[in-house]
Amino acid sequence: MKKYILILISFLFIGCSYDKIYENRESDRQEAQKIANKFYSLIKQNNREEAFKLFNQETTSKEKFNLVLDKIESENGQIQDESLINWETYIIKGTNSKSDYLLVYQVNRSITNTQEAFIMQKIDGTIKIEKYKINIDLLQKK
């Protein structure tokens, strides 16, 4: 009987997952912000090739990436400066590890200011940009 109880308890422990969840830690924000800062720095230097490497290559095509940047720059102007206005992080460490990041920037451009959001995930130990969303205030043209 003791043998069956030990086996049952063993299965219970094996079936359990031990995860720690961290939300909105400053260190996680800083880690993701390094990627966004590098992106803006590379775009200001017109180094799209290196900027594209910050994206998840499985979810983003180079053609669409360049098309979006061309359109944004032609209609809204060059980036003058950017500032982080909102952020969220959600990190799970353990058997079901996952790291999600959301950073929202106010971007001052030469024609129209934009609000830009980065949705990122850690893939194989490296944070990659999954989505890059741009909101434009059409009434605010300079």
Task: Report on the architecture of this protein.
It contains 4 helices and 5 strands, in the order H-E-H-H-H-E-E-E-E. Helices cover 37% and strands 38% of the residues. The protein is elongated and about 80 Å long. It has a 5-stranded antiparallel β-sheet, with helices on one face. The termini are far apart. With 142 residues, the chain is of the alpha+beta class.
- Give the percentage of residues in beta strands: 35-45%
Radius of gyration, taken over Cα atoms and rounded to an integer in Å? 21 Å
Largest sheet: 5 strands, antiparallel
Order of helices and strands: HEHHHEEEE
Helix content: 25-40%
- How many angstroms does the end-to-end distance come to? 81 Å
Q: How much is the average pLDDT?
A: 89
By secondary-structure content and strand pairing, the structural class works out as alpha+beta
Low-confidence stretches: none
Molecular shape: elongated
Number of extended strands = 5
Can you list the strand order of the major beta sheet?
1-2-3-4-5
Count helical runs: 4
In short:
The chain has helices at 2-15, 26-44, 48-52, 62-76, and strands spanning 19-23, 79-94, 98-109, 114-123, 126-136. By secondary structure, the chain is an alpha+beta fold.
Give a topology summary:
Elements: H1 2-15, E1 19-23, H2 26-44, H3 48-52, H4 62-76, E2 79-94, E3 98-109, E4 114-123, E5 126-136
Antiparallel strand pairs: 1-2, 2-3, 3-4, 4-5
Features of the shown structure:
single chain; 142 residues; alpha+beta; five-stranded antiparallel β-sheet; 5 strands; elongated
